[in-house]
Amino acid sequence: MIFLFNAVKYSLKSILLFWYPFGRASAKEYRYCIWTISFVMLSAVLFIWILDYRFPDSKIFRLITGAIDRTSPSYGVAALLVLFFTMLSAVIRRGHDLGYSAFYTVTHGCRGILGMDFARELTSQEGSPYANEYGPAPEENRHL
Fold it and tell me: What letters, b where the CB count within 10 A reaches 16 and e where it falls short, cover 62-101?
């Protein structure tokens, strides 16, 4: 139950702050945000794929795909942009917690997609329990 509460809490916080890449995010907040958003996106794709595979001629599948076809030019693109910027904001705030600038975090994050070293660093390292130039320490860091 605590897991679900944390997943909802940190994901909603990140979604509400998707346009605000300032401040710091703890490793716990970063992990919950990235994994929850990735799970939601993957679940939606798998749901459509399973409906198509199991019930290709059903009315419910045609209703869902019809709704997606009508709304995808506007709502689908907007939802994907919000999720993308939510994840980007979480990555930048996590980099701030480790003392990296936004430029450094984004450039090494793009380069790190191939090697995954920087992504591993963002997930595994704990941030400082003290304030840095990007703001005060997150609550989870203060208890270290």
Answer: eeeeeeeeeeeeeeeeeeeeebebbbbbbbbbbbbbbebe
